[in-house]
Design brief:
The chain is of the alpha+beta class and 133 residues long. The chain is built from three helices and six strands. A three-stranded antiparallel β-sheet has the order 1-2-3, with no helix packed on it. The longest helix has 23 residues.
């Protein structure tokens, strides 16, 4: 088992990661009858995409002895209706510590190989921007 989710009422859930015990609270968003006081399930989904990309870049950077600590990914999720679904995910990376073009190319290509990227439905538009600092 990976996680256990408990419905807390009022459109809120608690997800416990079995291995670590860490918790994620989710709320329905304001535009779907929720309080919007925490990540919504679709926010978590979109965030997982950026987190996965940044993680595999971190793995590759470590193999290359390149430090990209303090790099960030800014996520924007776009919803569509009928059926309600994620239609686009925009990811803007701000990558620190990388200077040469070869390393940049390797890290960009690596980001596109993350498991979440391969798992996304092809109808979800992915807009990826890399800003090298």
């Amino acid at each position: 088992m990976t996680s256990k989710i408990t419905y807390l009422g009022e459109l809120r859930t608690s997800s416990i990661h079995i291995q670590s015990g860490s918790e994620i609270i989710s709320d329905a968003p304001l535009d779907n009858n929720g309080k919007g006081e925490a990540f919504s399930p679709t926010d978590t989904f979109a965030n997982g995409f950026g987190s996965c990309m940044l993680t595999v870049m971190g793995i590759k950077a470590a193999e290359m002895k390149v430090n990209i600590s303090q790099s960030t990914a800014e996520i924007t999720k776009v919803m569509a209706a009928e059926p309600r679904r994620i239609s686009e995910i925009h990811v803007v990376f701000n990558i620190y510590g990388v200077l040469d073009d070869k390393t940049k190319t390797i890290l960009e290509r690596t980001a596109m190989t993350c498991p979440v990227h391969y798992s996304l439905h092809p109808d979800i538009k992915k807009v990826i921007t890399f800003n090298w600092q």
